[in-house]
Specification:
- The chain is an alpha+beta fold.
- The protein has one domain: Jelly Rolls (Sandwich).
- The protein is 27% helix and 19% strand.
- It is built from 9 helices and 13 strands.
- The strands form 3 sheets. Strands 1-2-9-6-11-5-4-3 form an 8-stranded mixed beta sheet.
- Strand 1, helix 3 and strand 2 form a beta-alpha-beta unit.
- Bound molecules: 2-oxoglutaric acid and fe (ii) ion.
- 2-oxoglutaric acid (AKG) binds next to strand 5, strand 6, strand 10 and strand 11.
Length: 335
């Protein structure tokens, strides 16, 4: 049976003021009832070109313990590279539905890669107002071009170009985060897979929604990755949970949004926190985002780093192979 895509539902709901009941969130989740307005504390914005490495390390470590996320500006990726990535992704989602379905994730596939609409078992059978495309972009041995759109024709070249630029940002972030834990520069990277660290790209496509007050894009979650590097489009929608409230993360042109993921919380034995976040949708415009998840190889076991634990600070997390961690999380099995 064909899976109904959110984009198709959105298109057929253009003239109405309702959404199918499976998209209506409980009152505990509805964005109109749960978003904190008024005086809004801001997620830290960090200048990545700061020549003072000590200062940069401190700012990133503080943001990663307190907010579990931050934005970086002056990251070195040319804006043209980002605009091209966005344009190609948008053009893919604007292709006729039959063509997008050629990239659909096969129902029995073990890999997450492909075009799809639903990732996790959702509480109360609710659905998220978002479609997505997943494919690895690095290392070459992990790339399956079957899931890279052939259209637009520029898709492969612009994604390869983005991959080339995003990797140094990922490495630098991991080394600064490593220094922030009092470790050697390369220690964190080595412990998330070294050269085998995977870069998994996701494109989120949030079509306009007639009732953005009732629906959610991606629901509250933390990323399973080590870190996530995200490019948004210009439409506001990312929210972060802090001090028992949901806050909008302000869209900053040209900034990259960095999330601390579960594997970094585990490795750091809780010094860095993984960030609880979700997305809202809007009535008239399409929101899109391009997170890249920096993931350990599936067979690598991740646990608190021995150097960071002692009698006073015993391990708070179990050591687990990354693939087992993912399986438990996707199937909502306690870790
Ligand atoms: O769209 C966004 O800004 C966030 C997306 C996200 O959190 C995810 O795909 O894991
Ligand atoms: Fe996320």
């Amino acid at each position: 049976m064909a899976v109904e895509r959110v984009q198709t539902i959105a298109f057929s709901s253009i003239l109405v003021d309702t959404i199918p009941p499976e998209f209506i969130r409980s009152e505990k989740e509805q964005p109109a009832l749960t978003t904190c307005l008024g005086c809004i504390p801001q997620v830290p914005t960090i200048d990545f070109s700061d020549p003072d490495e000590g200062n940069l390390t401190r700012l990133i470590a503080e943001a990663s313990s307190e907010w579990a996320m931050f934005q970086i500006v002056n990251h070195g990726i040319p804006s043209e590279v980002i605009t091209n990535l966005q344009k190609a992704g948008k053009e893919f989602f604007e292709l006729p539905q039959e063509e997008k379905e050629l990239y659909a994730k096969p129902p029995d596939s073990k890999s997450i890669e492909g075009y799809g609409s639903k990732l996790q078992k959702e509480v109360e059978g609710k659905k998220a107002w978002v479609d997505h495309l997943f494919h690895n972009i690095w290392p070459p041995s992990a790339i399956n071009y079957q899931y890279w759109p052939k259209n637009p024709p520029s898709y492969r070249a612009v994604n390869e170009e983005y991959c080339k630029w995003v990797q140094p940002v990922g490495h630098r972030l991991l080394s600064l985060l490593s220094l922030g834990l009092g470790l050697e520069k390369n220690e964190l990277k080595e412990n998330v897979g070294g050269d085998e660290l995977k870069y998994l790209l996701k494109i989120n496509y949030y079509p306009p929604c007639p009732r953005p007050d009732l629906a959610l894009g991606v629901v509250a979650h933390t990323d399973m990755s080590s870190i996530t590097i995200l490019v948004p489009n210009e439409v506001q929608g990312l929210q972060v949970f802090r001090d028992d409230h949901w806050f909008d993360v302000k869209y900053i042109p040209d900034a990259l949004v960095i999330h601390i993921g579960d594997q970094l919380e585990i490795l750091s034995n809780g010094k860095y926190k993984s960030v609880l976040h979700r997305t809202t949708v809007t009535k008239e415009i399409t929101r899109m985002s391009w997170p890249v998840f920096l993931e350990p190889p599936s067979e690598l076991a991740i646990g608190p780093l021995p150097k960071l634990i002692n009698e006073k600070n015993p391990p708070k997390y179990q050591k687990k192979k990354y693939c087992d961690y993912v399986y438990c999380k996707l199937n909502k099995i306690a870790q």
